[in-house]
Amino acid sequence: MKKLIIIAFILVGAISCTNDFSEWNIDPKKATEVPASTLFSNAERNLVRTMKTQNVNTNIFNFMAQYWTATTYPDESNYDLGSRDVPGNFWNALYTGVLIDLKESSKVLNATTATLAPALLPKNKNQLAVVSILEVYTYHVLVDVFGDVPFIEALDIDNSSPKYDDDTAIYAALFVQLDAAIGNLDASAGSFGSADFIYEGDVSSWEKFANSLKLRMALRVKDGAKISSAIAGGVFTSNSDNAAFKFLSSAPYSNPLWENLVQSGRSDVLVSDTFVNIISPLNDPRTPAYMDDNQDPYVGGPYGANNSFAEFTHLGAIFHEPAFEGVILDYAEVKFLLAEAAARGLGGVTAAEAHYNEAVTASIEYWVPGADTATYLAQNTVAYDATNWEMSIGMQKYIALYSHGFEGWASWRIFGYPTLNAPSTAHISAAGMVPVRFTYPADESQRNGANYEAASTNIGGDKFSTKIFWNK
Q1: CA separation, residue 214 to residues 122, 190, 230, 246 (Å)
Q2: Which of 7, 128, 249, 270 has its CA 20 to 30 A from that of 68?
Q3: Distances (CA, A) of 461 to 243, 252, 387
Q4: Torsional class of 312: left (φ above 0), alpha (ψ -120 to 50), beta (otherwise)
Q5: Which of 243, 227, 201, 204 lies closest to 48, judged by CA?
Q6: Taking a C-beta distance cutoff of 8 angstroms, is the pair 139, 131 a contact?
């Protein structure tokens, strides 16, 4: 009894000593402050997952480029983008899942700058630059997809309706931001180390990536000075430079394609007849890597149709591997960009055919090391044709970008090659046409993720919808 009385007095005394119970609700196992490196890692992961997934709710660019087609649910390959609000989901994945984390990472890094020892400042500066580079990449994708988007007033939690900025002005600002980030990189200092799943903290690799991204963007707007500047800064020179996220064999860091194609237990994706009919006659060494041999010969699923999974060619085995790396920009693309610059007479670049051959070789060596590239390039159907360079570069760049849906779709918009198929069952708003880009409603007040349609163009017609991009 005495023990109970003593315990009661202790409890009463403890309670009477404080009126602040806020700490009682703090979970010591859950962080209330997130390190900049963790925010960066999450943004990097979300970015690559968004660009590489084949989830029809989020990313359908492999459908839009007609590399792949659907089985049970062909809505998106028929340009019905509203049923699952694909444009809105893609936007949200990059805006809230990537850009906000990058902004917060930058905020944390800037807040700690004043407290760092002088020896740690170069690393901090590198980290801020790398964050900025990924911001530019993300915004460049959003502008290429949507045109005008929120930029100056974006990412403000107190502003739920940020102003939409002109895509021309955004691209101009992105070039300034990218140049500043490149200028701040110091290869003698570190950055995010193991928290960086693309380059593992290697600053010189980030510098090459930034210049290669600048080259891509400069070709979008046909700016010779920026092309020259990017090359002078140092772009990719081999496949070892590729910007590739190192996925792991288990969730949550596995390749989303494996999740879509294997873990889900679903059979929703096939190689399209568009792609099979292009690559099959070429004796292309990449064919067995790109496509499974479940059908002999290869038989692509009719694009846009409600196809049987068993009757048509499946994706290659590599796309069913959980640890298959996620590439967002590679050496082959850089060489194709240099070939395009030379063909257009931009940036002082010459030797279009040499760059073209090196681009095709780089792609084949990535997918099928040791393959006979020379024999492939010697074919009349593959050899560079200076009199019709748009077809040569357009066709081979499209093949090299297989599974890189966003950039494959962008390449088609630039060159008009290959000829894509307008599905007979296309959504009524597309009227059987080939899609160009996602569009928001004209009225900004309606841009709430609910109403989207596909801007379209006739096959072989004016394929360039954005006012400053892809003008020949």
Answers
A1: 23, 22, 6, 23
A2: 249
A3: 34, 43, 21
A4: beta
A5: 243
A6: no
Strand 269-271 relative to strand 326-329, pairing: unpaired
Residue type, 28: P
Domain 36-255+321-457 sits in CATH 1.25.40.390: yes
Contacts of 396 (CB under 8 A, 6+ apart): 336, 356, 359, 360, 382
Q: What is the pLDDT of residues 266-284, one digit of tens each?
A: 999 999 999 999 999 999 9
Q: How far apart are CA 381 and CA 162, in angstroms?
A: 50
Burial grade of 118 (CB within 10 A; 0-12, 13-18, 19 or more): exposed
Q: Could you state, in order of their start, the residue ranges of all structural domains in the chain?
A: 36-255+321-457
Cβ-based burial of 211 (10 A; exposed 0-12, middle 13-18, buried ≥19) = buried
Contact 217, 407 (CB under 8 A): no
Give the separation between CA 120 and CA 257, rounded to whole angstroms.
39
Q: Which has more pLDDT, 464 or 335? A: 335
> What is the 8-class DSSP label of residue 148?
S
**C-alpha to C-alpha distance for 136 and 148, rounded to whole angstroms:** 15
Listed residue (368, 377, 383) closest to 286, CA to CA: 368
Q: Which two tokens stand for residue 237?
A: 């020179």
CA-CA distances (angstroms) from residue 174 to 158, 178, 465?
24, 6, 21
SS3 439: strand
How far apart are the two ends of the chain, measured CA to CA in Å?
Answer: 93
> What pLDDT score was predicted for residue 33?
82
Distance separating alpha carbons of residues 441 and 439, to the nearest angstrom: 7
pTM score, whole prediction: 0.89
Give the residue among 398, 403, 244 at the shortest CA–CA distance from 316: 403
Calpha distance 249→323 (Å, rounded): 5
> Cα(132)–Cα(210) distance, rounded to whole angstroms?
10
Interstrand relation of 164-165 and 453-457 (parallel, antiparallel or unpaired): unpaired
Q: Are 456 and 431 in contact, with CB atoms under 8 Å apart?
A: yes
- Which residues lie below 8 Å from residue 364, measured CB to CB, with a gap of 6+? 285, 286, 371, 373, 376
Amino acid at 262: V
